Each structure stands twice: as structure tokens, then as C-alpha cells.
């Protein structure tokens, strides 16, 4: 039975997509069966793992809006053990279309029931908002992984995210947990980054992963080649750090 993890933070550019793709690829490399779900209309996880959006016949939109079975939307990737439910720009309309639909918050959860036993991990890359797409992801998940960029204002906006998590726990998904808080894009040359680490650890304590993702140019280059970091440059510091994170996540 898959552990379902939503990667969420309504701030853009904090490393949600980079983490989804590379944590997914690293878990798959460790032999886990992994499904990535792209629920961001920008579809960066989809293109980042090498899927040409122009070739996508059906996407997460069809699951949420057209009741298509999840199994019919899953695509293979070039990474062994790693599959994906892609997103295209069509998803941009879903947020509004969902508003008036029945069981609008639980559509993803319902859709994943039938495929859950085929995977060890299902990782959902959320959009940079706290709307119905993110609520669907949180409602479908066992836990939420929160990436936080080691920058000024890192903690800003987190109270809204935590509030949304609390509301989902209260009304939609009582067993939702915080999987962990991941510090990303650390520039070890600056004191600022170290200050942010201290602040985040004070706030989230043992929920903060030991692994901290450094700023690494290879991580930012890989998506333009449609490759995870494990394929693009397995010896880079970025690859090493996401492999460390994968081991931490699966407790090995
Ligand atoms: P989000 O999905 O939260 O919007 P992304 O994962 O797309 O964030 O990251 C934002 C930008 O920062 C992207 O261009 C990405 O390639 C880059 N990036 C993410 N993590 C790192 C890192 N550790 N080092 C360098 N660049 C990174
Ligand atoms: Mg993203």
C-alpha cells in the first residue's frame, strides 16, 4: 500500500517540483515503486521528467473532472520504477470547474484507491496556491512534505499553509501528518542561510530533515533536459543530497 505524500507550500519557487521529481527518482533508484502526480497546471514535473506535454492524451484533469480511471492516465518514464500522472495547461480550468462539482475535495482521494496497492510511494507535486487542487492533494495524502527555501522571509506565509493543513485534518482527512520539513537551496557561504535553518528548526523541531538541499546549478539545469538529477549528473552534490533525502524518507 503506497504512502501518499503531498509536496506543498503555496509559495512559488521554493523547490516543490525539484523535490518531487528528484525524491521520486531517488526512491525509484532505491528500488521503490513510485508514482509522481503532477497537480500543478504549469506541468513542470511532467516536462521535468521528460514527458512532452504535446503528446499527453489524458492528464490529471481528466481524473478530477471527467472521472477517468487513474490507471488509464499513468505514463512510464525513462527512470526504472518511476511512473507519472501528468498535468497539462488544461488543468488551469479545473480549480474553477471543481467549485461547483460534487465531492470536490475528495476526487483525487477516491481516484487513487484503485491504484494505491501498485506503488510504495505516491508523490504529489502541488501548485503554488492553497486552492482546491492543493486541498485535493492534502485530502488524498497520508502526509505533507513542506519545502522551505533558505532565504529571507522563509517562514512568511507558513501560518496560512499550516492553517490549511489543520482545516483539512479537521474536516476532510483526520490522519494527515506532517511528513517533514525540507530546507532547500542552501547557500552555505551566507550567514542568512544558517539563520533560516536555526529559525525553521526552532519552529518545526524534529520534523526538519537532517538532509539539507544545497543550491546546486546541476539541479537547475536538469529539468531543461527532461531529466532527474540522478540521470543528469549522479555525482553532483544535488544528486547526493536528494539520494540522502530518499534514504531518510524511507528510513534506511
Ligand atoms: P516550485 O515548484 O516550488 O515553484 P521549483 O522546484 O520549480 O520550485 O524551483 C524553482 C527554481 O529554482 C527552478 O528554476 C529550479 O530549477 C531551481 N532550483 C530548485 N532547487 C534548486 C537547488 N537546490 N539549487 C539550484 N536551483 C534550484
Ligand atoms: Mg512547481
UniProtKB/TrEMBL annotation:
TM region positions: none
Domain AAA: 3-178
Reaction equations catalysed: ATP + H2O = ADP + phosphate + H(+)
Stretches assigned to coiled coil: none
Gene3D superfamilies on file: P-loop containing nucleotide triphosphate hydrolases
Family from the record: Belongs to the ParA family.
PANTHER family assigned to the protein according to its UniProt record, in alphabetical order: P-LOOP CONTAINING NUCLEOSIDE TRIPHOSPHATE HYDROLASE (PTHR13696), PARA FAMILY PROTEIN CT_582 (PTHR13696:SF52)
Subunit annotation: Dimerizes in the presence of ATP but not ADP; ATP-binding is required for double-stranded (ds)DNA-binding. Interacts with DnaA.
Protein name: Sporulation initiation inhibitor protein Soj
Originating gene: soj
